[in-house]
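Late entry, written up from scratch paper. The run itself happened at the end of the previous shift, but nothing got recorded in the book at the time, so transcribing now.
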Amino acid sequence: MNDTNLTTTTEAAEAAEAAERLIAEFRSLPPDNDRKREIITELDANAHALPFLVSVVADPGEYDLARVESATVLRLWPPADPALRHEAGRALLSALRDPEEDLVRQYAAMSLAPYTADPVVAAVLDTTARADEDPLVQSGARFAIEEAHRLQETGAGGP
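Output as recorded:
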């Protein structure tokens, strides 16, 4: 193994360890502790944390600001794995349908752009952009549609 592979392997192990440590801390905190939001921010771009972030955004009982941060991270760093990407899109759709959390719904709508290859996501996003009762959710859905088109044009949209 050359030095580059060793460094990459070491960095991956360190990222996995950091994710595990932060996830454990997150789970140990009281429900509405703002440290949860900070932890999600610290997990930004850590691929090992993506399944956890999907679970946070999908959980209607989770701290709303942690769900908002998770949605944002999932927009910026969508999973490369097709199955996890599908699960992330569906988790964001679930959050979009949460009648109790307007802010979570707004961020879920804005975060759906990388997931529009899924026909269900695309259809729900289109309907939301035209007919949601919350104008800020409608605006977020329109933003996501525009971003999805931009991602497709540049080829940055992934699978």
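The two ends are 31 Å apart (CA to CA).
(Scratch paper discarded after transcription.)
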